[in-house]
Design a protein that fits this description.
seven-stranded parallel beta sheet, binds 2-amino-2-deoxy-6-O-phosphono-alpha-D-glucopyranose, alpha/beta
Length: 255
């Protein structure tokens, strides 16, 4: 099962930064799966503050809107540049975003080939939507799905409207790594903060495993770490066990 760690946002960012820096120490050209959204900012801010040399790190963004004008400040390419590449000192030519190359019709296959050619994603950072989506894999997405163009739910468009002048400006289509793509990553690091995520986290962690709760795909993965604050953990039935397991984690065992 996933390892669930309950801690506040700042501590979660620091712990995630520890995990990433340990990986990069072992493998300087590690491949990171990069999520956007407000949640992973805690991780990127903690990492930036450490000032580590990450110039050889390679990155694959999880998802991107389809239909925004090039260079739009809320395109995930722009967000990843602003919030990840620049503060962390990554090499922009080593960071891909789905749909950034060639025609959109073949962009999904192209992205999958690039991930395979890079040797796969070593560590995939994930947030979760209030409707349980990971990446932009909305409820009903196949657990075997690979990178492809999808249609956003109205709920997701409304959730993301805060980044735009109005909900009408939020694109209807997106291109996202599939749940199958995400499941191929070697280690999944899922973060969630706040009461609004409590239901999605309970569904993801405690099931049932169903395409109706895309986050529940993490239960099919052998190495998952879930970092949640008290509010996001508040609907977990087995919360006492997660705390107990964390408190009794063998000292030799890494995350
Ligand atoms: C978007 C992204 C997801 C992200 C979700 C939650 O829909 N495509 O990858 O997990 O938002 O965002 P936030 O972390 O801002 O709550």
């Amino acid at each position: 099962m996933a390892e669930i760690v309950i801690l506040d946002r700042t501590a979660a960012g620091e712990l995630a930064a520890d995990v990433i820096l340990a990986l990069v120490a072992r493998k300087p050209d590690a491949v990171l799966g990069l999520a956007t959204g407000s949640t992973p900012l805690a991780v990127y801010q903690a990492l930036a503050a450490r000032g580590a040399d990450l110039t050889d790190v390679r990155g694959f963004a999880l998802d991107e809107y389809v239909g925004l004008p090039p260079g739009h400040p809320e395109s995930y390419r722009a967000v990843i540049t602003r919030e990840v590449i620049e503060p962390l000192g990554l090499n922009p030519s080593l960071v891909r975003v789905p749909g950034d190359r060639g025609p959109i019709e073949t962009a999904g296959d192209d992205y999958e080939r690039s991930i395979v050619a890079a040797g796969g994603v070593d560590l995939q950072i994930l947030g979760i939507g209030t409707d349980g989506h990971i990446g932009f894999n909305e409820p009903g997405s196949s657990f075997e799905s690979l990178t492809r163009v999808k249609t956003l739910t109205q709920q997701t468009r409304e959730d993301n409207a805060r980044f735009f002048a109005s909900v009408d400006e939020v694109p209807v289509n997106c291109i996202t790594q599939g749940l199958g793509t995400i499941r191929r990553a070697k280690h999944l690091l899922l973060l969630a903060f706040g009461e609004a995520k409590a239901e999605a986290i309970a569904a993801a962690v405690e099931g049932p495993v169903t395409a109706s709760a895309p986050g529940s795909a993490i239960q099919l993965h052998p190495h998952v770490t879930v970092l949640v604050d008290e509010a996001a953990a508040s609907r977990l039935s087995n919360i006492d066990y997660y705390r107990y397991a964390w408190a009794n984690k063998p000292a030799w065992e890494s995350l």
